[in-house]
Amino acid sequence: MSEAHGENRQTGPTGSAESGGPTAPAEAAASAEAGQAGEPAADGSGDAGGRRVRVVLVDDHRMFRTGVQAEIGQTERTGVEVIGEAADVDQAVTVITATRPEVVLLDVHLPGGGGVEVLRRCAPLMADATQPVRFLALSVSDAAEDVIGVIRGGARGYVTKTITGKDLVDSVFRVQDGDAVFSPRLAGFVLDAFASTDAPPVDEDLDRLTQREREVLRLIARGYAYKEIAKQLFISVKTVESHVSAVLRKLQLSNRHELTRWATARRLV
C-alpha cells in the first residue's frame, strides 16, 4: 500500500458517497508507543477470530479507496466490513452520520477542509457513550503538524499509507478497542507535543496558510518543481505559482530557499 510521493491511489465500491468530544491528547500520547502499528496479531495470523468491525473509508482518491477495499474488505477473512466511502468533507460527515461505523479510516488532506474538519463536525459521534465512532488517520503525510492536528481533533491514531494490509487490519481492530495506534516514527510526535502542558497548541504563522497552501509549501520544501507540484495536486502550474506567492507574502519570506528552511524548522518535511 506504499505510495510514490503520495500518488498510489487505491478504492472501495460499497456505500460510496460519490455517485463526542475528541479523545484527550494526553491519553492518546500515554498509550502511543504501546499501540504502534505494525506489531503482529496475537496468533501471528491475519484472521479476525470471528470479530467484526464496520468501517468507512474517507479519501479523495478513488483508486486508493478501491485498493484499500480490496486489501482489507474481504470480511470473511479479515473481519472488516467496508460499509461506506467518501471523497470530501461533506460526503464524509453525511456517510459517517448515516452509517455510524465503529472505525473511520480518514485521510488528512481532503477537499472542503481536511480531516480535522471531519473530526470537528463528527465530535458528537465520537462522544457517544453507547456507540462511539472512532477515527484512524491513514495518510501519505508523515509531517508532525498533520499528525498532531488530527490527534488534537480526536483521532485515535495515525498510520501512513506504506502500512501493509495485515497491519492495517490489526490497527483497525485496536482502534475499535479504544487503543491509540501509530506508525512507529509518528508516536514520538505525539509524545513530544503533549509531554508538556505548556507546549504551544498552535503555530500562528502556519495557521495563516490555507490547507492547499500548506500542501504546496510541503512539496516545495521537498524539492519538487512547480510542474511536479501541479501534477501531484491536480492543479495548473499557474495556480501553484499563485499559492507560492501567497505563502511567501503571508510568511514574509523572499524565495523558495527560505520557504524550505522555514518548513524544515517546523518539521513539515
Which descriptors apply to this entry?
Rossmann fold, alpha/beta, Arc Repressor Mutant, subunit A, 269 residues, disordered N terminus, 2 domains, six-stranded parallel beta sheet
The number of domains: 2
What sequence of helices (H) and strands (E) makes up the elements? HEHHEHEHHEHEHEHHHHHH
Helical fraction equals 40-55%
Mean of residue pLDDT?
A: 81
- Name the beta content range: 5-15%
Helix count equals: 14
CATH class of the largest domain: Alpha Beta
The Rg value, from CA coordinates, equals 18 Å
User: Care to count the β-strands?
Assistant: 6
CATH 4th-level superfamily of the largest domain = Response regulator
Q: In one word, what is the shape?
A: globular
- Placed side by side, the strands forming the largest sheet appear as 2-1-3-4-5-6
Might you state the CATH topology name of the largest domain?
A: Rossmann fold
Characterize the biggest β-sheet: 6 strands, parallel
Q: How far is it from the N-terminal to the C-terminal residue, by CA?
A: 21 Å
The CATH architecture of the largest domain can be named as: 3-Layer(aba) Sandwich
Q: Low-confidence stretches at least 5 residues in length (pLDDT < 50)?
A: 2-16, 18-24, 26-35, 38-46
* Structure class: alpha/beta
